[in-house]
Amino acid sequence: MKSRLMNIIPGAFILISLVLALKINMNWLWFTAFVGANLFQRGFTKWCLLEIILGKLGVKD
Fold this sequence. Notes:
There is one protein chain. α1 (2-23) packs antiparallel against α2. This protein has helices spanning 2-23, 29-45, 49-56. By secondary structure, the protein is mostly helical. It is built from three helices and no strands.
């Protein structure tokens, strides 16, 4: 379950921030960039804050 959430949550964040950038303010694209940078560094380091948070919330693999 955790591996599925590790794809669903960042994908939802990106889509939501893109809609907010189009409808509210273009500065929401900074949030999109942050999520993308986190995914990029996770690919190299295999460390992700979201994974730690989900583990502390009791989400199983």
